Each structure stands twice: as structure tokens, then as C-alpha cells.
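ASSEMBLY PREDICTION REQUEST
Request ID: AP-0331
Submitted by: J.K., bench scientist
Number of chains: two
Total residues: 838
Priority: normal
Notes: Please return the full assembly, not individual chains.
Input sequences:
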Amino acid sequence: MSQQTTEVPEELARLAQERDFPLDLVRRALALGFSPGAVRAQLLRGISPQEAEEFLAQQERLRAGEEVEVPEEITQMARKRRWPAGLVQRALTAGFRLSEVRAMLEAGLRFDQAERLVIIRERSQERQREGGEGRQRRTELPWMNVRTEWGVRVRPGKKGLTLGSLNVGTYGDVPDYWPYQTEMPRGAYHNPGAPPMGYTIYEKAELWADNAADLYEEAIQRQWKPATAIPWDDIAALPEVQERALAQLCTYLCQNALVCSDVIGRWLKEMSYGYHEVKVYMATAGFDYARHFDVFRKRAYLNGIGMGRQSPGYYLRVIKDARRWTEASTLLFIFNSSYVLHLCQVGYYTAASEGDALIFRLAMQDLARQTAYGVKHLQYFLMRKPENREEVHTCLQRAESLFAYEDDKDPTLQEALIVLLGGGLTEEELKRGWALLNYFRRRWLRDYLRRLEAAGLPERRDRLFPYLRQWAPAPAAAR
Amino acid sequence: MAIDQDMLHQLTTQEDLPELDLSWLRPEDRARVEATRLRPGRKGLTLDTLEAGQELPDASDDYTARPRGAERHPAAARHHLYYPLRHETWSDNVRLLYEEAVQRQWSSATDIPWHTLRPLPDDVERAWCQFATFLTEVEFIAGDTPGQWLERINPEWYEVKLFLLTQIMDEARHLDVFRKRALANGGGLLQESGGGGLRIILECQDFSEFSAIMHVFAEALVQTLFRSGEALAYNEAEKAIFRLCAQDESRHIAFGVMHLKHILETQPWRREEIHYYLDKIEGPLSLDMQSGASANAPLFDEAIMVLAGGGRKNIDKGFDFLMNLRRRQVLEYLHRLEVAGLPERRYRMNPVLRAFIET
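STATUS: Completed
Returned structure:
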């Protein structure tokens, strides 16, 4: 096709005019078979008329069967970089300008790297020259033909498009054993060349909870913002002793949250991708802990007190030291969350302002989700692996005994709670605080045992570590 | 929460008060805190307000779980061998980024106008599904990786831990939103990618290595892609996905750039080491970027070409988009390295990447 007869699409002509780019060069490019889209892209990229002229002249010579003369300097550079003879000429034929080839050589491209670029350009040129049929053949795109649940649409419901609602058709089949060690999402088509990613949990029973997807969505809907959700200005300072006691409680809660978030971080990478519902829920649990640390630290410092004394951290180490996710989950989300919930109940009960009450209420709301996962997972685990029942008891025994050890050895938190609950340091106030602490600890033990019962471990009540039995409910009250 | 008064009376009379120590109440045992009340500012009570004027140590020999500012317990158990120096993990913008992350959380269930999805031509829908499948994989890795650093970061510099937890949350939402997109319009998940490049992120042995590779390189490429999403989006739902994800990625990159800057300023001898990490990641990922000639994973590039071209028939137009995208990705990556204080990377980067901006 002669360039004189080549028609320039109106939009392209307008663009060339806007860029002060000679229309003649556009015509020559189209006559050489370059698509209007390719020419447009060059114009948008800001190609100069000189560069275009150099390139088009080179292409016209090549199409006429001539070779482009390669300067000796470039030939030498190519030899030095061990490019095979002919690669420079091939690059030019593929549409690279001499200046581009020089840049590739100066950049230090090895021959294989340069060749890949040349192949890409050759394919692009082929596509541009081919008619519709040929182009179709070239772009076979095998991934387009893999098996999928084609035609199954998930519609948003009352709560929007939720994670759980995606589990339709084969996507709803959550296998008992996930056979892939790669990063493949559940429901995708496996690539046999993908490398293993090093996960260790491939069995559904080891991490699954039927409520994980719902808890994930709920966690997202209920996320709150410590900086702005709490009416900080309205939280008046408590009498100094109580303010210090509250700061001590907040210090403990900060430390607890940080350790728990470490535990989540450690286990996330162990969970294989077949069970993404659990992984994403864990992300929200980690984020909950971040906000808890944040809000309790802010509360401790709000009225000029700051952090109190750290806890020795013996019992938290047991959670960190877990060697199986079910162990970590049970200690984290049933034992520890139950314990932290009771601390928040104390905080809520003693709150002297709306702001303080809100802090503890929001934290409890998050912790309730965590216990919900913990209970459902343990339930699932025990149903599938009844032979591991005793193992769960052993893990709980370890946590309970270490808790007793710490509670006995370090009275700091206990005393802070007594002061907080009693409202001061007089004997009467301390006595009242001690009585109330026992009341709240009884509630804690009652709730803890109820959760274990719901998970399918009712006998824990009879096997509770002796130190904790002082707060355990009488058999009738426990039901 | 009300307590029955009779029960309280009964408890008060029954329980013997144990001997109390109360040493935690003695002010002389406590770290001195400026007794001033914190006042929330325009953005509420932020970490910056909280920590203003507080000491920020550069080093710590404390391997317990003690939060910064808390009184040491002499018998506290060690929890992990944390990084002992602040420089190893710190970024000067970390508090700001954490607060911003908390404020800007969004929901893939309700913040995306899913109702704007309309049936697309089969090839375009399949391309979207392939695109979303790959990004789901990417986000899996992006969520797992920060988690493995949490327990190595000293609670003394808790801000970094909090920020990483927001990143894990962000990545969970990203994988979730791309999975939802794949399944919401009648397509589904398609082919798993090769994934070799992504594993390098999991394999990092040092926090700065992780941050340079993940925040500065990988997330920067992804963010440029998201910011170019107009060309790939066919409806408001897809535009919203790109916009919201790009917003999150910006924070991760900002952390990485400022951390790298901090490292280069405080530990200048690590410059060559950082180049090694970048050499490592630029190599494998640049293979993926090669598209058609790469034996590794052309599918993501091909999906982009189909989407940008408006169908497989216009894949050449999509190819031009892809090449422009690659050029922008490399330029933006280089710009960030310049900001971080590594301008010489322009001349030292993998030649394959360099070719995108010089040819």
C-alpha cells in the first residue's frame, strides 16, 4: 500500500496535529503495517520526528530487502557483550532503532536478555501484520480455556458481597486435605510448575472453623478507630490511685495484645491457601490486637500516668510456644480471650466515664469474635480428631498451670484490679475490691468452662488445674 | 454491668483479703512520666500526640515483651531475640501511616458498587478472572510475609508492629476483593501462576531485605498497575477496587521508602547489601515482566493485554499499554529509590528493566 493512499484515522490525525508531528510520518508508519494503536502509543510517549524518521527509514530499507548498516562501534560493543552475530541486525529488523540497540548494549544486556526483548518485538510486529484470523491463532492464550465455574454469578445480599457467599458450586467444596504446596487460591487451576511455599498446615481439621468467613466480614464491618471513636476529651482523670491502677491494667492489656499479635503473625504463614477464610479472619484478629494495644496505651497515658509495670510474661510464653495451631488457637482464643474478656469486664464495670466504658466495650466486642473462632475450631478439631482429646487437655493444663504460677508470683495485676474495683486504698475499699475480683474471676471461670463445653470438652470442669478451682462454679451453676 | 448487692455483701464478708504488696503504686519505682493530660488534635488522639516528648530509644537489650515505657520486671521471661537496634526496623512515618491505615479501612462487601458489574464479552471476562486470580496469589504472599517479622520486632518500637498488622489486614482485604471480583461476574478463578518471584519475598532473612523487596519493589509495581486501572476497568466496581487497593499500597510503599532512607542514613555501610537485595528481586520478576517470551508466567501480562485492548482481537493495542505500564512502573520505582537515597540504582538496575525506560 502506498503511503499516499494510506488513510490516517481522524483521531490519530488530530493527535499528531496537537503534538506538532508531521502527518507524513504517520502515513509512512501505517503504510509499513504498524497499527494506529501502536502509532498512537508512540505519539503519546513523545517520540520526536527525528527519531521517527530514523526508525521509519530503517524499516523501509529492511522491508525493501536491504540491510541496515551497523556502525563499527556497535558491532564491537555487541562482540564484547558476546552477542551472537546477527542479533543486532535481527533487533533492527524487529523494529528497534540503532539508538535503542546501543542503549541495550550500554545497559549491559546479555544476549539472552536482548533476545527476549527482540522476540517480544517480533511477535508484536507479526500481530500487527496479520489479519484477524491469523491474529486470533497467535493469541491462543491457553489460560482462557481452563476449567472454571463459568456462568455462576454471586450476587450481593443484605450484607453486601460477603466472603461466605462466594462458596458456591465447586468453590464451596472445602477439601479435608489441601493437596497443593503452592500459592494457588482454592478453585483455581493448578500450575504444575509452581514452587512450594513452605506451609505446614494442609489439613482442614487443623485450622477450620465454620464461622471464619462470617467472623471476617463482621470484623471488617465493626472495625473502630481508637484515635477518633473514643471521646477522649470527656474522660476525666480518676483519683490518682485509681488512675494508676487503671494504667496498670492497660499496661497488662497492651503487653497481652502485642504477644498475641506475634502469635498470629507466626502462624499465618503456616496456613495453606486452601483455607483462605481462616487466614483472612486471622488478619482481622491481628488488627484487633493492634487497636487494643493502641487504645490501652493511649488510655494509660491520657491523664499523665503512662505505662505501669510489665508482667513477667510466663503464661503468655505458653501461647507463643505452641507447636500446633489448634494448641495456639485454643490457648489464644479460648483461654486467653476468656481471661482478657474478664479483665475488660472489670474495666467496663469500674469505668467512670462514657469514654472508658466505650474502650472496654469495643475491646470486648472484638474478643467475642475471637472466642467464637476458638470455640468453633476446637469443636471442628475434636469432631474430626477425637483421638487428640487428651492432647488438648495437656495443652490447657500447661496454660492453666503457668497462669497460676504467674498469678501467684506476680500480684501486680491482681492488686491493680483490687484497687480499681474497690475504689481506693482503705481497708474497706481493698476488701470490697478483693471480693469483687473474686466475683469477676468466678464469672471468668464460668465463661471459660462454658466455652470449652460448647467446643465439646465439658469434662474440663472436672480436670481444671487446682489453683483455678477456687473460682470454678459449683456443678449446678456451671450449666 | 450491675452486681447484686446481696451477693457483694456475702462476698465481702466471706473473703479474706490477702496481704498486698502494692509496690507497683510507689511513684519512685516508676519511670517518670510527664504528668500532663493528652489532648486529642484534629485527627483525634493519635500516636504522634501520644508519643510527643516521650523518649524513643535507639537500642534495647530487653528481650521480654515489655511495652516501651513500662517498668521492667526483674524476673520477666525473654520472648524472642528481637532486633536490638531501632534502625533495623524503623521508619519515621510509621505512626502516621498506622493512624491513616486505621482511618481508611474499607469493606470489600459493601464499599464496592458490585451492582455496576455487567456481563462482559467472554474473552474480557476471562482476562479479568485471570488477572484477579494472579492478584489473589500475590496478596496471599503479601499478607503472610509481614507476619513472620512481627515477633522479631522489639516491643520497644511497637509502632512498626502495629503498622505491619494494618498491612496484613490490607492484604487480606485485597485478596478477598480480587477473589470476589473473579466470582462475581460469572467467570471464576483461572490458572495459577508460576510464582517463583513471589517466593523470594517469603525467603527474606532480614527486615530491611523484606522491606526493600516487598514494599519498595513489588508493591510499587503493583501500585503503578492499580493506578493505571482506568484502562483495565470496565465498570465502577472495578474502578473502586483499583482506587481503594492503590490507596492501601501507597501506605506500604511509603513505609518501605522511609525505612530504606532511614537505613541508608543510619547504616550507610549497608548500601551495597541493599543493592544485592534489589538485584535479586529485579532478576526473577523481570522475567515475568517479559511477557510473551517468558516461559515463566505470561498469563498475567496476557490478561492485562486483553483487558487493555478491549478483547483478544486487539491484543496489540493491549501490548502497547503493557509496555507503557512497564515503563511507568520502572520510572516510579526508580523515583522512589531516589527519594530513599539510592539514585545510583538507575544505572545499576537489571538491564532488562532498564531497557523499558531506555528503548
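REVIEWER COMMENTS: The radius of gyration of chain B is 25 Å.
SIGN-OFF: pending second reviewer
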